Amino acid sequence: MVFKKILTIITGTIISFSANAEMRSEAFLGYNGLRFDRKVHA
Predict the structure, then answer these.
(1) Cα separation, 35 vs 13, whole angstroms
(2) Helices (H), 1-42
């Protein structure tokens, strides 16, 4: 029972961490894309 609870916490942490990493990389790529567009149009 305790082991299952620990496993659930670890799994939840990994899932939330990977989701945050994906969001961060998407935001970073979006920011780079905007800067690139400005350079091209300027």
Answers:
(1) 33
(2) 2-41
Q: What is the pTM of this model?
A: 0.47
Token pair in block for residue 30: 């979006």
In 1-42, the DSSP E strands lie at none
Chain CA centroid to CA 20, Å = 3
- Tokens (6 digits) for 27: 């935001």
Which pLDDT does position 31 carry in this prediction?
67
The alpha carbon of 24 is separated from its chain's Cα centroid by a whole number of angstroms, namely 4
Distance CA 4, CA 10 (A): 10
Tokens of 23: 């969001």
Task: Tell me the pLDDT tens digit for each residue of 1-42.
Answer: 899 999 999 999 988 888 777 777 777 776 666 666 666 655
